[in-house]
Fold this sequence. Notes:
By secondary structure, this protein is an all-alpha fold. The chain has one domain (3-71). It has helices spanning 3-16, 21-32, 40-55, 60-71. 9% of the residues are buried.
Amino acid sequence: xxxxxxxxxxxxxxxxxxxxxxxxxxxxxxxxxxxxxxxxxxxxxxxxxxxxxxxxxxxxxxxxxxxxxxxxxxxxxx
Length: 78
C-alpha cells in the first residue's frame, strides 16, 4: 500500500538525518512490541535476517528497501 512513502521516509532517515542501517533495524525491533502483530516472532526473524545480511556486507539501501517490501506481509490483530 504505502511502500513508496515508507521508502522515502527510510531514505530521509538514513541519508538526510544520518541514521545508520543498524539503528533503523533496532528501532523497528523495539517498535514491534508496541504493535499488536499476529505473529511477532516472524517479524523478529525478519529483522534478524536483514541484520545478518547487513553485517556481511550487503548493500544497505537495497537490503532495507527489501525489508520494507516484506513488511507488507505482516498484519495487525483486530
